[in-house]
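User: Teach me something about this protein's shape.
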Amino acid sequence: MGMKVSVLKLYNSLATRAVLGPVGQIPVGVTGLGAGAMRHVPRSLRSATPASHSVRSWGSGGRKLPTCAEHDLENYSMYCVSCRSPVCYQCLEEGKHNKHDVKALGAMWKQHKAQLSQALNGVSDKAKEAKEFLVQLKNLLQQIQENGLDYEACLVAQCDALVDALTRQKAKLLTKVTKEREHKLKVVWDQINHCTLKLRQSTGLMEYCLEVIKENDPSGFLQISDALIKRVQVSQEQWVKGALEPKVSAEFDLTLDSEPLLQSIHQLDFIQMKLPPVPLLQLEKCCTRNNSVTLAWRMPPLSHNPVEGYILELDDGDGGQFREVYVGKETLCTIDGLHFNSTYNARVKAFNSSGVGPYSKTVILQTSDVAWFTFDPSSAHRDIVLSNDNQTATCNSYDDRVVLGTAAFSKGVHYWELHVDRYDNHPDPAFGIARINVVKDMMLGKDDKAWAMYVDNNRSWFMHCNSHTNRTEGGVSKGATVGVLLDLNKHNLTFYINGQQQGPPAFENIEGVFMPALSLNRNVQVTLHTGLEVPQCVKQPKLPNN
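Assistant: First, the predicted structure itself:
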C-alpha cells in the first residue's frame, strides 16, 4: 500500500514498544531506537507522541500488547471515535469515555486502513490521469508544430498561386498592350507610305505643269491644258479633308483598374470558419402523400456560419440504417417511390468547407396504408388511350397493348380492382403485374417480365413466359370486376372475378419490384380502382379444369 501503510510493520520489526499518539492512528515505536533509526520515523508521528503516555520496553518473552496508560493491567481493546484514541475496558466503564461512541479496536484499525488504501487508490488514479494528460499535452505540442508547418506550407502555396495568377494576368495584359502598339504602328506606317506616294505623284505633276506653263506656243499649250487642268483638279480632290490627319493617336485607350485587386489583397486574412449549426425541421411543412414524403428544414435564426449544402438521410422503412437520399442546397425535398404502409425516419445535416455539422432531430413519417395509383401515361404504349384522370384505359388497336400503373411494390400486401366498362366481340384482356421493362406491344405474360391472368367470356388462364397454365371456368363480361391481390410477404399473386377467387394462387416465389399491369385491345375498356383494403373474407376458389 505504500510507505505510510507499512510504518506499523517497520516499527514492530525494530522490536519497540508501541505508544499511541493523541490522534489514535498509528502506534509509533520509540524505545530501543538509536538516533539513526529515529530519523526514519516521520516528524508528524514523533511530535504526536504525548508526554503523558508511558514508554515501555519489550520483554524477553516476546512481543507484548500495548497497555493502557491509565490502567497498567489493561490492554487497549477499543477505540473512542469522539476522542480519536484507543481505550481499555476500564476506561470505558469508569473513565470519561463511558458516554462516547466506542468501537472495536481491530475493526477501526481495518476501517482506517481501508480508508487510507481507498484514498491512495484515488490519488493513484489521479496521478495516472495526470501522466496521461502530460502525454496528451506533449502530443498536442507535436501536433501544433506539425499543423503550424502544414498551415505555413498551405499559406505559401495559396499565395504562390495568387502570384502565379497575377503573373499570368500580367502576361495577358502585356500581350494586349503589345498588340495595340503594333496596330497603331502599322496604321501610321501605312498612312506614311500612302501619303509619301501621293506626295511624290503630286510633286511630279507640279513640276510637269510648271514646265508646260513655260511653253510660249499658245496652240501647243491649249492642246494639253484641258487635260492638265482636270488632272490637277483630280489630284487636288485626292487630298480630301482628313487625309492629312493621323488615323490613330499616340495615346493608348487602355486603363488598368487595379484598385479592387489592391483592396482584396489588403482584405486578405484568415477567417474563423465553423461547422454549420443543427438544421431545424419545419414539421408544419413535412408531410406524406401516398408513398412519397416531403421534408422541409431551415437554419436557426441569427446563425452566421456559412452553409454550402445539406445532406438528407432516410432509413429503409424497416428500422435499418440511414442512407443519403439528397445532397444539395435546397431546403425542401420530396422522395418518391417509397414502400406503402411503412414508417420512415428522416434527418438532415448541413455542411461547409470546415466539415459536416450535427444531425437534426429525427422526424418519423408514415406512408399510406393502402396504395393509391393510376395508369401511367408516360410508360404506356402509344396505342393506349387514357381518360378519367388516367384511371380508365382502352386502346386504338386490335392488337393487345400494355399499360402499367404508377406505383411499384417490393414488399407488403396490395389489392386493386379493375371494372370492365365495355366488352365487345369476346376479347382476351390480361390483368397482373410486370417489371418496368416489360414488352408493351403484345399480350401481358408472353415475356418473362410479366405475370398475368388472361380471360375471355367463359374461362381464364395464367400466363408467364408465354406458358399457359391452370385453365379455370368463369369469364368476364361488361360490368365484371377483376381483383388482383399481390402478397409480397408470402410472395404470391392471386386473382378474383366478381369477389370470388379465380383458381389457386397464380404464381408463387415471386420477388423483386413489380408494377400493376394490364393489356387490352380496342374491344375492351376498364376503369382502375385503388386504395382498397385487402379482402378479409373471400369465396372458395373455382378449381381449374386440367
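Now, about its shape. The chain has four domains: 7-110, 127-238, 280-366, 384-542. Residues 105-213 form the longest helix (109 residues). If you'd like, I can walk through any region in more detail.
User: That's plenty for now, thanks!
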